[in-house]
Amino acid sequence: MSRQGRVLVSELSRHFETSQVTIRRDLEVPHAHGMVHRTHGGALPSRDGALEDRRLREKEKLHRQEKFRIADRAASMVKEGQVIILDSGTTTTAIARNRARPAQLSESDHHHQRRQHRRRTGGNCRRSNSHWGDSAQEFVFAGRPHRRRNPARPECRSFVFLGVDGFDVHYGLSTPSLLEAKVNRVMVEVAKHTVAVCDSSKFGRRSLSLIVPTSALQEVITDCGAPKSDLRVLKQASIEVTPV
Q: pTM value?
C-alpha cells in the first residue's frame, strides 16, 4: 500500500494464496483501528482522506465556488436537443441544478439527487449516493441517444460529464468504487464527447479504481488553481482545457 497507494482484494488474494473472503475480513481489522480506509474492492491509506468515499453532503461543503463556476461553464456547452450523461458527484449535481437554460437540457442521470428532467439508473447505492452494478450499466446502454439526422441543423452530440475523486494526468480518472468505475466506463463508451469536471484539489491524486485513462478525455473544465504542469500535459495531449 505504501508503494502503490492502494491495495486490491483480488491482488492480495492471489499473492497470499487465500480466499477473497479472508482478505476482506482481514482488512476490516486495520480499518477498525483507523490504519486504512476500506472501500469496495480494496483499501486506501487512511491519511489520504480526500479520496475516501464521503457522503454527498460532506463533499458539497468543499470548494463550493469553484464547483459552481465549473458547473456554469459545463451547462453553457449544451445546446438545445443535445443529450448529457451526468456522473455522480457534487460538481455534476451543480450542473443539473444550473437554471440558466433548463428547457434546453435533456439529462440521462445516474445520480438520484437531481430533480429536474432526470432519468435514474438502477443498481446499488454507495455512501455518496451514486449507483453502480449490472442494472445501472444496462440503463446506460438502454439510454443511449438515437442519432436522428435533421438537415435544418447540425447533428447533435451527446456529452458525458465526469466528476472524479482523483485525477492523475499520467494515470487517469479514478474513484474509490470498482463497480462505479465500470459504470462510468460504459458512460464514456456511449457518449460522443467526454468532459472531466473537477476542481483543482482533485489533481495529482489516485483513488482505488481507474475509470478511464487521460487519453479518453476530450475536454477538462477546472478552476484556475489547477497545477500548471498538469494543464500543460493535458494540452500537449490535445485535450481542451478550460480553467474558470
A: 0.64
